[in-house]
Sequence to fold (314 residues):
Amino acid sequence: MRLGLSAAAAPEARLDELLEACDRRGLLAVELLPGASGFSLAAPQLSVGAGHHAAAVAGILIEDAADHVLLAGASRTLGVPIIVGGTAAHDERVSCARRIRLLGGAAHALLSGPAAAWVHLLGESGESFAWQLDDTCSDPVADSDRLLAWPGALQYIRLVGGGPEAAMHEGRGIGAVMGRLTLAGYSGPLVLAPGSPRYRIAWSMWLGRRGGFGCGSKAGAPAPLPLTAVSGERS
Amino acid sequence: MATQQRVLDVRVIPPREKHPTIFQTFSALAPGEAFVLVNDHDPKPLRYQFEYEHAGQFGWEYLEQGPAVWRVQISRTND
Fold:
């Protein structure tokens, strides 16, 4: 398991700044979004300095999957999967991910909400997928059991409301989910994303600081990252 | 999903659920198995709790000691 960060947490930060924040926090993966952190699907390249960080790009989250050729090309160029999210129905996301793969890219459909509603897609397709764990998932523990029943299918996880919002997850079963992922040997990225623009300041402070909040740790001096809203994010 | 080293990153777990999750994961290990605990501070209090509750039953090896993260391999020894 590689804990990571979505660029949605600091879309105005340059990618280098995002990677530095990941280094400070010991995060190993970064999720890119078109239009955030200077990333563009039309010119999918990373800065020269990007390779000097411990964190590496783990995926590109997209909400508009209209141009499959462009998406497949970006995936090939950066060597990372396209995470097909957005407002399309789950079966459409699966189809879109399949088309991107047929064009030579890597892609996973991002599935969210109660797994009972879409877990049949895994059996039908036999494909890999990404899971978004957010507040539309009413029973994360039961859902994780359903998903882990398909060995090898789960390749990417987005945890909406992680980072500085983690304490607010108390009682939702996140600990039990993490324990299950550990015992199942999940080795993919687990990307933290903000749950709401309301927490932007908290994310900025969290990303700019090293250290934790408990057991005698002492946080370093904060260096907040710039934060603004990105299109399509829930308020 | 490749089955590689088992990693339990507790940084995303609400504070009050961290230790119960760690001990439940440890309890699910067979003798000789291990997982790598990842945290944002030195989990010394956890080690004290292990020594109190599982004396002689666990291994504790630091793989990384800060400044950003601490990685500790916690293993279940043969009973």
About this structure: Residues 213-219, 229-235 of chain A have pLDDT under 50 and may be disordered. The first strand of chain A starts at residue 2 and ends at 6. The longest helix of chain A spans residues 90-102. Chain A touches chain B at residues 1, 3, 23-26, 151-155, 159, 162-163, 166-171, 174-176, 178-179, 182-188, 190, 192, 210-217 (CB under 8 Å).
